[in-house]
Amino acid sequence: xxxxxNRGTETRVLRKFGINEAYQLDMYLIDQYRxxxxxxxxxxxxxxxxxxxxxxxxxxxxxxxxxxxxxHPMMQVGVMDAxxxxxxxxxxxxxxxxxxxxxxxxxxxxxxxxxxxxxxxxRLDDYFPDLVIKQPGWxxxxxxxxxxxxxxxxxxxxxxxxxxxxAKVFHEDLLEMLNNAEKxxxxxxxxEFDILxxxxxxxxxxxxxxxxxxxxxxxxxxxxxxxxxxxPQFLNRDVSNAAWCPIRSFPDKTQFRAFFVDDVSxxxxxxxxxxxxxxxxxxxxxxxxTAFSWHLDRxxxxxxxxxxxxxxxxxxPPAPPDAPWARCDTSTRLSTTTTQSPTSSDNKTDDSQKxxxxxxxxxxxxxxxxxxxxxxxxxxxxxxxCQRQLGRLCCRCDVWGTYHD
Length: 405
Known about the structure:
This protein is of the alpha+beta class. Helix content is 27%, strand content 19%.
């Protein structure tokens, strides 16, 4: 299938949006979602640390991003007919990397942590370019201070394009590409300055989850859901509906809260989560739900709802063998260590030149499109305590967890 694009060339439709993809896109279009961020702090190899190596550093990051893009087709595609009932993923001819990779350099006396937090707030509040421009919905912002040995890499994306686990994979792959690249080899096929010409062969996209795994819903559940959506209000006995939730006609700004957990404590917490058949995300949801509940009047808010996300990757079949993203599954790595012989000076030298990740953060900007509190990793509304909110029956809050070693 082909249509004329705004550049006068034929647009190749790769496939229609899946059910969840269409839902995420619609949430963005009605301003329920904006940005989502996965940020990592990268330790820079010593030879790229000096200010004099700034150009070489930027080139090294750019080619590593290009290598990562080519591994993940979802970073290469655009959207067509976004506001229709059947939006589609389309093949793009090229990417202008100046629209996707931004560098922010700050002075030695500036507050680096404050700058990163402000950039996170800005990116979470930002809209992506108009979807008719036909470019992927992701951005990378790199924050660097003077000749510091580390830099912050913020990946922001439209939730229809990826999810949190996908962003984790991106950073893992970016780290791999940085360490595998040959020193000084900054040429890549199709890369001319900041324009990346994509292959003419259509990229192989992952299939929608509903086409890979049966997700049955019985008639009893459908009937109950229909009744809950259509019944008259006077028959609704659900006291968890947040009738007390304020409606404001102005948007609030994102608030940033960070906390740190050392390695030993993190491993102990993770072990207890596994014993109780939950995750750290579920634990954070429960803790925040409890904490916020103390700020609510029992009469006005006798109860409210709680829910958490589920990652279906474990239930899906393996990727096709020819898929560019097919690889052994990996877990979150916040730092990279190498086992070596203590007598090998060559290995020691090589290891000192490696990139590593020393901190990771995740943030989600989302609206809850109901008067009731639905507690996910996005958190909660309260009377006057909403961290971020628009003038609708919804709230927007951000929950941040930083694991630091």
